[in-house]
Amino acid sequence: MVVAITGAARGIGLATAKRLAASGARVALGDIDEAALSQAQREVGGTAIARRLDVRDEQSFAEFLQATVDEFGGLDVLVNNAGIMPVGPLLEESGDVARRMFDINVHGVLIGTKLAVPLLTGRAGARVVNLASYAGKLPVPGQVSYAGTKAAVLAITDAARWEFESQGVGFTAIIPTFTKTELITGTTTPKSVVPIEPDDVARAIQRAIENGDDEIYVPKALKPFGRALGMLPRRWHNAIHRRLGTDRAFIDVDRESRKAYRDRTETL
Q1: Known catalytic residues?
Q2: Which of 43, 49, 150, 249 could link 136 by a cystine bridge, Cβ 3.0 to 4.6 Å?
Q3: Does 151 have pLDDT greater than 90?
């Protein structure tokens, strides 16, 4: 099995590359951060290849996928993992930050899908795995734009699954909660929420590839909780969020501890 992974230099992408490579897959790592990418390739080891990838750039994405095909003889799975998560009050968010977020989180998924489907068609187990977020299901203050990007990823995944069903290409949405990556640095973890590890999400991605699931919540308990919460009147729904602290989790952020992540993502 040949798997191409975007945003593979760290976090969920790197954990996924390690897990899949350990199970025998041949993996291609793509990321815009070349220094981190080189280190990631060393950590994954084996036959893994690494190429600089800017998911916003169609030529860059096409070259990444072609390098994968040239090296391994084909492509079976694309994992659209690359994404950024600027947070904070909406009125403090610049237009440049919002556009960058949509370009990476949404257009990156669309570009990858359009380029990968022709390569995947006819391959056994062909699949596109898209990293969404629970924010796309239950958006909260401080994540207005980010939640919008992840809601878009969920819609793209559902529509593409139907459109490309006849070509034998499956689509999976992975829907994780708070994950211990740079994305949540400086945010406030809500009460009763235990952040999950990147490998928990990587395990879900591996399961999606092996079993062909349409969507996977990480952890599984998120799905019934979200459904129950969504059925409540808005005032009750919001009261629960306030009690848990999710209404302030992305508003009351530690800007100093988040500075390194913000600076890096704003210079992409």
Answers
A1: 146
A2: 150
A3: yes
